[in-house]
Amino acid sequence: MTLMLIARRFGFLFVVIWAASTITFFIPRLSSVNPVRERFAELARMGGYSPDDLEKIVASFSKQFGLDRPLWDQYIDYLYSVVRLDFGYSLNRYPVTVVELIYQSLPWTIGLLLVSTIISFVIGNLLGAVAAWPRAPRWARNFSTPFVLFMGVPPVLMGVLLLFFVGFRLKLLPLGGAYSIGLVPEVSWSFALDLFRHQILPALALILGSIGSWVLTMRGMGITIQGEDYVNFAEHKGLRGRRIFRDYYLRNALLPQVTGFALALGTVVTSAIIVEGLFALPGVGTVLINAIRANDFPVIYGIVLFITIAIATIMTLMEFLYPILDPRIKNS
Amino acid sequence: MTLALAPSPIKSPSRLHRFFRYLSRNKSLGFGLFILLALVAFTVIGLMVIDPNDAYPLSAPTRRPPSWEFPFGTDFFGRDMLAVMVVGMWQTAFIGVVAGGVGTFIGVVLGFISAYFGGITDAVIRITCQILTPIPVLLIQVVVAGSLDKRDVTIFIMALIVVMLAWMAPTLVIRSQVLTMKERQFVSVAKLSGVSDMGIIFKEILPNLMPFVAAAFVGQIFLAVFASFYLAVLGLGPLREPLLGNIIWLAQAQGAFFNGWWWWPIAPSVGMILILGSLALINMGLDELSNPRVRKSE
Amino acid sequence: MNTADTKPDLAQVIDAPEPTPVLQVNNLDVSYYTDSGRAKALDDLSFTLNAGEKLGIVGESGSGKSTLALAMMRMIKAPGRIDGGQVRVDDTNLTALDDETMRKARLMKIAYIPQGAMNSLNPVMRIGAQMVDAVISHVEKEPKSAIVERCMLALESVDLPRSAFRMFPHELSGGMKQRVCIAIGILLQPQVIIADEPTSALDVVTQRQVMETIDRVREKINAAVILIGHDMGLMAQFVDRVAVMYAGRLVEVSTVREMFTAPKHPYSKALINCLPNLENKGVFQGIPGLAPSLLRLPGGCAFHPRCAQVMDICRSRRPETTVEPNGRTVICHLIKQEAEIGQPS
After folding, report:
1. Any idea what DSSP says for residue A142?
2. What sign does the dihedral A186-A190-A193-A194 (CA atoms) show?
3. pLDDT (tens digit, 9 = 90+) per residue, A219-235?
4. Are A230 and C120 in contact (CB under 8 A)?
5. Do B272 and A157 touch (CB under 8 A)?
6. Which of A36, A91, B167, C89 minimizes the number of CB atoms within 10 Å of its CB?
7. Owning domain of residue B260
8. Which ipTM score applies to this complex?
9. Chain C residues within 8 A of A251 when measuring between CB atoms
10. In chain A, which among 195-234 make CB contacts under 8 A with chain B?
């Protein structure tokens, strides 16, 4: 693992972040909508200011935040602030900063993401691996088929269906929110249980919506791997079926799946965001959706950029994982 | 010296017959096509039958559950859900095909140029694709859609937004396929026989690319429909239009489930599931077609 | 069937150990049941092998050589099936064993060295780990250090350094990987070793190394070796006896000297004739016609459509076996006739 390699990887990461920042900087400024003016116009409508005063307010606001300076200067400032992870203030909930909003809501999102992603990946790949293993019993191999059918149902729609059948019709689980109305958060089993009950449907929506692709791709991979010479030779050596499945078959079939996981991160995160919105969980997704509704542009761009940076960073870190998993990969 | 007699010749079945036989084996492709055709029929017949205006607010009594008069019920704003479904499907199809088609086209052209001409062009295109890949496409589309004046967003603009960042994947796929083909002998043979560059492109390479282009096209339609749906669900779509994602967003905003108006979000959800499901099935089926190892033996 | 001593040397005869059959294949039938019909891959195959003996099995592609190897290891997968017959190693009938006992028998009684060692080793496991797991799948309760030592000794027997234990397959050359497979094959000192074209993918120098290694380890553990291939030159240098297969049937089994100097079966004759020699340099010989599809075998003798000495009876009746006093076996009507009449061929 050379220094050159690490430098190159992180260099690439910075280029990606730079590209994303540039996009989020220029695109909004290309449109005719001036978020500041929009916001103040809204306040003006409610408060009753005159149009002249509105312009004065907008002008002084712009001066305050340097929005009247040349575009290039603003750009450099922007890049500089991105590096410091300073995304500015929320228009709607001034003086709360974007970063504070993210900080408050992130734990919910991470919790949901981690649980559903891990379960989806592990179970999905296992089902797919078994589906392609000729020595597995028929029932086990066919077990995975219904999950593949879920592939056409994205997590958010899965969420709607679950909401409908389980929440609405059967009234088994809550329709949304992080915990029941009226409850005060506390450290107790009953509160934890309530929390848990509220997480089940969103997690289930995410899991069922994404498990199909893991099953399918792993099955395809498995079909190739089980025909490989080394799996055959393992049987010639007289190894037990379970050992062959685990060490010779699974270990090799999982390698490209891990790569696939890194590539799928973007989709995973965006699905989670929308599911959060659907179930009104207080995570980053809901913050984003509310910001969209309220035209709170700094929050929108800040969250988008934050997520992009997070995903790109995770992808870069995962690249260091590959040589450990596959000894054939040389770090050159 | 004779070997054992060959079996008597069988009459070879017609192409149509073989096509249907293949469909019955490749269940995902067959099933997917069936659902898609059913949806197309629904939309086409629907467009002829209903009055498109019914898909817009205040054309029907509000919040009615499904009945004979309104098979899919009506929503909070007084829209006939049946009309909504028909018009919404049509608009979704429009975005899907247009965006998907443009995306595939760009991908094929760029991928081709990149692979065929190599050198700096290739490097630039390839590196651009690589840099843009980690960026979650949907979020950038959110940025774009969010920056626009909400009143400016039309169906057409939706399609454009969706296409913007979708061309990278087909570009890379087509590029790698063309690269492989460039190395293969039939190109060198054609060149040696004096076929012009353009000739090679159209007569030799393109025909072999067709399966990948077809698969990419279906994939792009899927992504386009997916992306437009997500943008709409977030409230970034052309809000006046009865796009299926829009309906769901509106329904959520009005707390449809809490209020008991279950048919409001369910109809577009089911519609969306059918669309995406059929496209996914077709995609899987095409995958099996081009990857002989996954093909189930007869 | 006794091993023939081609050089009748009294001293050798007295000193040679009593030949004991360690492998007996009796009337082995294997078919593949495909959509296009039933392909008889092995038809009534019988032969015997003694301890320490080297038997070469030659034949064209599709003659059933590899199927024979798989059948002996009981690795025939659907749509193939062992329809009948026995494979006995040291009095255990492998074909009658249950799956778990057969699993244990693999590598302990009968071992297989694969053709393409390039891809036969798990790319994500170290060599040592792949040897150790073979051992612990058969031997209960051997302490870790003893297992490792056993593997190290095996590596030494094939002339590989002990450091190879910790390497990954991609760090080794083709010849080294092949030798690892041999080392794995001898880990548990089996009685029979089947080497399925172990050198086809290697260069000539490495070929020799690998063959010498196989010979050496065979001597050490006194195993019987079956060498499957189509390289007649290799056979000539290495094996004691040669068995010729055609279309899933055995046609001749002779000592190597007999086979190369005076083959009896018309097919064997044609094969030997095809070998380039110093007299007819530059003149390539082949055998006219094609090997039949196993789905539609000719009636009677499978070779009759291509046989230069075909007789009427060959077209309708399966040829019978002629066993000569020294153990040489030929399955041919012509030879049977000549034997009965008493004519030399």
Report:
1. H
2. negative
3. 888 888 888 899 999 99
4. yes
5. yes
6. A36
7. 50-290
8. 0.84
9. 122, 124-125
10. 216, 220, 223-224, 227
Report the pLDDT value the prediction gives residue C125, as an integer from 0 to 100.
92
Task: Please tell me the distance from the alpha carbon of residue A19 to that of residue A40, in angstroms, as a whole number.
Answer: 31
The phi, psi pair for B78, rounded to 5°, reads 85, 35
Mean pLDDT of C206-226: 87
Cα–Cα nearest to A235, from C186, C95, C127, C104: C104
- How far, in Å, CA of C198 to CA of B239, rounded? 70
Say which of C35, C289, C299 has its CB closest to residue B1: C289
d(CA B186, CA C306): 38
* Category of C91 on φ-ψ map: left (φ > 0), alpha (ψ -120 to 50) or beta: left
Contact present, C93 and C78 (Cβ < 8 Å): no
Number of H helices, E strands in chain C: 13, 12
Query: Quick check: B160 and B100 in contact, CB under 8 A?
Result: no
| Structural domains counted in chain C | 2
Domain A101-295 in CATH 1.10.3720.10? The answer is yes
In Å, how far are A259, B22, B170, B213 from B288, measured between CA atoms?
22, 11, 18, 15
The answer to the question of residue C284 being in a domain is yes
β-pairing, C329-331 with C249-255? antiparallel
pLDDT tens for each residue of A296-330: 778 888 888 888 888 888 988 888 888 888 888 77
Please classify residue A51 by burial: count the beta carbons closer than 10 Å to its beta carbon, then call 0-12 exposed, 13-18 middle and 19+ buried: exposed
d(CA C275, CA C282): 11
Q: Give the minimum alpha-carbon distance from B173 to chain C in angstroms, rounded to a whole number.
A: 27
Residues C184 and C312 both lie in one domain: no
Q: Would residue B228 count as lying in a domain? A: yes
Q: What's B74's DSSP letter?
A: B
Cα–Cα distance between A99 and A147 in angstroms, integer?
38
Count helices and strands (H / E) in chain A: 15, 0
- What's residue B296's pLDDT? 43
Give the gap in angstroms from C-alpha B230 to the nearest C-alpha of chain A: 8
Nearest-angstrom CA–CA distance, A24 and A18: 10
Distances (CA, A) of A130 to A136, A242, A245, A250, C201: 6, 11, 9, 9, 33
Closest CA–CA distance from residue A49 to any residue of chain B (Å): 23
For residue B188, give the CATH number of its domain.
Answer: 1.10.3720.10
pLDDT score of C13 more than 70: no
Dihedral sign for Cα atoms in the order C91, C96, C100, C102: positive
pLDDT higher than threshold 70 for residue A33:
no
Whether residue B17 lies inside any domain: the answer is no
Q: Which residues contact B279 (CB under 8 A, 6 or more apart)?
A: A152, B32, B36, B218, B221, B222, B225
> Which chains are adjacent to chain C, needing at least 3 Cβ pairs under 8 Å?
A, B
Nearest to C85 by CA among C44, C47, C57, C33: C44
Query: Cβ atoms within 10 A of the Cβ of B206, count?
Result: 14
Burial (CB < 10 A; 0-12, 13-18, 19+), residue C288, is exposed
* A 75-114 residues with CB < 8 A to B: none
Which CATH number do you get for residue C197?
3.40.50.300
Residues A327-331: contacts with CB within 8 Å, 24+ apart?
A: A327/C123, A327/C124, A327/C168, A327/C170, A328/C123, A328/C124, A328/C168, A328/C170, A331/A1, A331/A2, A331/A5
Q: Which residue's entry shows tokens 């969706």?
A: B162
Helix (H) or strand (E) holding C254: strand C249-255
Give the helix ranges, DSSP H, for chain B: 15-25, 27-49, 81-117, 119-132, 137-147, 155-164, 168-183, 185-192, 197-199, 206-233, 244-253, 256-259, 263-290
Tokens representing C39? 């392909």
Buried b (16+ CB within 10 A) or exposed e, B61-83: eebbebeeebebbbbbbbbbbbb
Q: CB A327 to CB C124 under 8 A?
A: yes
Q: How many domains does chain B have?
A: 1
